[in-house]
């Protein structure tokens, strides 16, 4: 019954029956407490997981430091590449289990879980190869002459050291790998703090990394709460780097905590991305594309396009199409292949989403569809669309992280004015423009202030496409070459000849 009558793989059943501990220094060890992780589609418990606090983080960081100072740092890039390719094959071999762990723990529909497994394998292989192409430089001209005589300078790219990786719950193992793969490729050692909402797939990652031959202490995984384990990792004096994905509010705390030893910080934070649909857009493409820009992963997606700007001429047809599309989405358990919309991660998050919906109604936005929490077990909120939204409303200004779309009617076709509306947000993560005009598309793409702008699609991220935020959406980039740069230092070496 814990799986709502749906079959799961025997290996998933076996995984849930295991005792789940912390990975420190190459061994599975007890934590200081346990938490019960639940299936958000049913509210029923899945299993108990050991969690750690400051003490366990301290032990994990010490292990990571020893490993960093040990034989790991003498491995060649090619040797790390071989380990990572072996790890990618292990992910492939365990793809079904991995997908089911995130479906059960997070609630994501199966099609998304399967997509993230395929992308994950590609990403690990990509970073395994990328590290072989990281090169230093020589200064130009390579030899220089000073008062002391002739000298030669070249640069080396070196791992930043012990990296703390703090992961959210919305795409759990995918975000884990987006940090772990480039960090390990770069030669860092890592301490991972998964989200307390989704602790399971990280544990499988840990086992697969051990099985692939990563030496003890190179990978440490400490499940636990943000305020305890997460906060200790962020402030730890012997951690050289924090890579954090999560809310903007927590991102601020991470930055404050990092000031003690001025560790390097990368932040992938929240968003409230603009979606601009011009009068000449191909609505047959725009309607499903814009709907899924908001509703993919129940809107629990940092790059969700939740501020729709619709040209006056197509506004009503667009809204009608979006509403029909939204009503056609199938809410259900992620294990059911027919499901396109899973549950909200937790009761608290569902209550927060409903609070925004109530605030939207009270502020005078018009509810077109959705807007209620379903009276059934689990945290189900159907896709919700508001029109007559205005820039001052909280549903337009704040990240809801739920299936709530706001539509604003454009009363101008001046692209600068439209860009100003799109840019009226503290965030700047993603965004999209829907038009058949090449010129308008690229003009808006250059004017929208965000880390990614898509044309006639939305949020099409990929292994080699740098991704990150302008403004309060974050610092730095993940994916692609920049994703590995985040774990490398540059050293200049000068030799007097
Ligand atoms: P969150 O900030 O609540 O938690 C993220 C992680 O930080 C969790 O592991 C949590 O335990 C930990 N944490 C919480 N408080 C901490 C503290 N004081 N010190 C250290 N760690 C702490 O975010 P969430 O609710 O898990 O995730 C949703 C948020 O993540 C949304 O705002 C979303 O936009 C953002 N997100 C951003 C991206 C991106 O790439 N920009 C991707 C996914 C999610």
Automatic annotation (TrEMBL):
Record keywords: Oxidoreductase
Enzyme class name: oxidoreductase
EC numbers on record: 1.2.1.39
GO MF annotation list: phenylacetaldehyde dehydrogenase (NAD+) activity
InterPro entries the UniProt entry points to: Ald_DH/histidinol_DH (IPR016161), Ald_DH_C (IPR016163), Ald_DH_CS_CYS (IPR016160), Ald_DH_CS_GLU (IPR029510), Ald_DH_N (IPR016162), Aldehyde_DH_dom (IPR015590)
Active-site residues, as the UniProt record annotates them: 268
All copies of domain Aldehyde dehydrogenase, residue ranges: 28-493
Leader peptide range in chain numbering: none
Pfam families in alphabetical order: Aldedh (PF00171)
Family membership noted in the UniProt record: Belongs to the aldehyde dehydrogenase family.
Annotated PANTHER family: ALDEHYDE DEHYDROGENASE-RELATED
Protein name: Phenylacetaldehyde dehydrogenase
